């Protein structure tokens, strides 16, 4: 698999044969994002014990954070 930015095709010939997944077109992404924002409040209410994870970190840091939330969760405000 190739990615236009992060892992481009090695040759122009291969690049010419590539196709984009129809689900990844801009209008489809906009619909999915709109659906997400329309339903976010219900999701937050349903998953009241959920926690936010900054996944834009080293995988070990993310794992340790999740592990700490499961093993020694912080007290909740109720």
From TrEMBL:
<keyword id="KW-0808">Transferase</keyword>
<dbReference type="InterPro" id="IPR027417">
    <property type="entry name" value="P-loop_NTPase"/>
</dbReference>
<protein>
    <submittedName>
        <fullName>Adenylate kinase 8</fullName>
    </submittedName>
</protein>
<feature type="region of interest" description="Disordered">
    <location>
        <begin position="1"/>
        <end position="27"/>
    </location>
</feature>
<keyword id="KW-0418">Kinase</keyword>
<dbReference type="GO" id="GO:0016301">
    <property type="term" value="F:kinase activity"/>
</dbReference>
């Amino acid at each position: 698999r190739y990615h236009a930015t992060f892992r481009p095709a090695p040759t122009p010939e291969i690049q010419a044969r590539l196709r984009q997944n129809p689900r990844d077109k801009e209008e489809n992404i906009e619909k999915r994002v709109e659906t997400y924002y329309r339903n976010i409040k219900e999701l937050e209410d349903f998953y009241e014990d959920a926690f936010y994870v900054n996944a834009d970190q080293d995988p070990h840091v993310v794992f340790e954070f999740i592990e700490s939330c499961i093993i020694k969760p912080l007290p909740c405000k109720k």
